[in-house]
Inverse folding.
């Protein structure tokens, strides 16, 4: 059955490489070569303080580990394609490399998810081209 | 250089919040509110020489000014968009004051409206944010801002406590105010703390009665030169200070999101106004959710960081209370007409300052008022101090 949930509408020139890497289960982020600021979501400008770097952000591979910064259990999905998934957990994950990303916590009952838990990436191969970096609570 | 006291709000119009107006469109609502504000101010259309239209969820700001200028038959000599979402009401007032103070215009019309046609957008909510859709939507788009604000509330609970039984205080006191405002969406339904705690979870830990009530509606107000305002029929409501702070767009940004962006805006606002938070008689603080108000109270200096949820238990935020807050019911109980929801806090402050709020009129003297706006997911916030005292 084809995957029916939302995926990238228009991968941009900033994000094409990021999405392509998911197919190989590589979780990318960027680091400014001038000031070392970690950058996510990917872009061409460096958001670091006092850095005017442009097109100086270089792709790096994350080890895929981080800590739950905050989360919520969604009971009422905005998109009906998630109706069968509720309740599910959305989380903001503080990655060890210093960037923050939005994902799902899977494999743990929603009532057992806590801020501060260590998590590791768990790839979900949703199509032949794209895998989604979801996270599981690390043992 | 400052705009302190240079301008005043001289006319307001607030359209009644309704569940939806599928037969109306945004220009029609903007026109109704705008003409109402001009009438209220005692001005002629020809007097309006500045225009700031907030595009709400649709359209481009620049195009909207031209559209509304033609629609209304006004030819302003200065116009611009606002476009800071829920912070647009307060930001628009401050920007209008700056325009007037700079001599670019004498009377600036500021307006926003939301038709909320349920057929146009499922649930009446805006579509996914195109700049972030690829980083969020694959994991489940959130219901409006519920997901984001739920994460703020979750982290606040983790750091400081402040669970739903405490947050409920905001929802209950605001509802009492709405029960005295005949046009509020929840005029006829009182609620108790237990009702809030027992309402269903929307996105943990936020419960249904901690959330905004989406409606259709619209607001307009006119900011005029202080020296000209004195000859108009209404008591002018002077703008003593205002500021905006825009630290980020979304929480992927590695910042501490239990600190409200208004923290920095409030400091500059109070410095410009030459008053402090404890001088304020009435607060109209942008309320998308209970947690939003608690963090704005902390950020603006009314409560210490992490103590807000306990501090609010000792306050009476009703119109009869020691610190009246969101006297129209707030957007949770009055209604949130898209980005015009943030305008309702401005217009309500004007009604209270004039002593024209009817049944919900604050009982003590109203001299100084503090108003905030908040856009997006705690992305951009603004503050403003108002007074009717020309010598304040």
């Amino acid at each position: 059955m084809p995957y029916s949930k939302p995926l990238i509408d228009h991968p941009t020139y900033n994000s094409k490489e990021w999405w392509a890497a998911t197919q190989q289960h590589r979780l990318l982020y960027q680091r400014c070569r001038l000031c070392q600021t970690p950058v996510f979501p990917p872009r061409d400008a460096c958001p670091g303080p006092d850095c005017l770097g442009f097109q100086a952000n270089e792709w790096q591979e994350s080890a895929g580990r981080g800590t739950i910064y905050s989360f919520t259990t969604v009971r009422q999905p905005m998109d009906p394609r998630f109706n069968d998934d509720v309740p599910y957990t959305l989380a903001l994950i503080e990655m060890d490399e210093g960037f923050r990303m939005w994902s799902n916590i899977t494999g743990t009952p929603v009532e057992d998810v806590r801020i501060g838990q260590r998590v590791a990436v768990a790839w979900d191969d949703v199509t032949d081209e794209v895998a989604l970096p979801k996270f599981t609570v690390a043992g | 250089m400052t705009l302190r006291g240079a301008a005043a709000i001289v006319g307001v119009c607030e359209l009644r919040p309704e569940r939806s107006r599928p037969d109306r469109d945004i220009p029609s609502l903007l026109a109704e509110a705008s003409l109402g504000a001009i009438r209220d101010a005692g001005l002629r259309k020809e007097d309006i020489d500045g225009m700031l239209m907030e595009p709400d969820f649709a359209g481009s700001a620049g195009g909207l000014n031209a559209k509304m200028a033609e629609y209304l038959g006004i030819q302003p000599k200065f116009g611009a968009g606002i476009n800071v979402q829920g912070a647009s009401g307060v930001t628009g007032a401050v920007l209008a004051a700056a325009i007037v103070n700079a001599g670019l215009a004498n009377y600036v019309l500021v307006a926003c409206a939301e038709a909320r046609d349920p057929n146009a957008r499922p649930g009446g909510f805006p579509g996914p944010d195109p700049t972030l859709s690829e980083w969020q939507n694959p994991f489940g788009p959130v219901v409006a801002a519920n997901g984001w604000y739920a994460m703020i509330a979750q982290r606040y609970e983790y750091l400081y406590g402040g669970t739903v039984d405490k947050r409920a205080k905001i929802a209950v006191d605001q509802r009492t105010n709405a029960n005295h405002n005949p046009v509020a969406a929840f005029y006829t339904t009182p609620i108790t703390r237990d009702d809030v705690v027992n309402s269903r979870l929307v996105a943990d830990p936020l419960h249904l009665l901690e959330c905004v009530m989406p409606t259709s509606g619209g607001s307009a107000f006119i900011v005029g030169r202080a020296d000209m305002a004195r000859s108009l029929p209404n008591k002018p409501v002077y703008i003593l200070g205002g500021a905006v702070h825009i630290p980020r767009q979304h929480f992927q940004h590695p910042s501490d999101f239990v600190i409200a962006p208004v923290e920095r805006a409030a400091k500059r606002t109070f410095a410009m106004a030459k008053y402090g938070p404890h001088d304020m008689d009435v607060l109209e603080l942008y309320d998308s959710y209970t947690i939003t108000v608690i963090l704005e109270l902390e950020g603006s200096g009314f409560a210490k960081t992490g103590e807000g949820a306990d501090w609010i238990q000792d306050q009476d935020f009703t119109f009869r209370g020691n610190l009246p807050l969101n006297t129209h019911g707030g957007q949770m109980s009055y209604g949130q007409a898209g980005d015009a929801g943030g305008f309702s806090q401005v217009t309500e402050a004007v009604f209270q300052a004039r002593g024209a709020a009817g049944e919900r009129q604050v009982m003590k003297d109203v001299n100084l008022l503090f108003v905030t706006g908040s856009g997006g997911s705690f992305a951009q916030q603004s503050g403003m101090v108002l007074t009717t005292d020309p010598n304040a």
Notes: The mean pLDDT of chain A is 93.
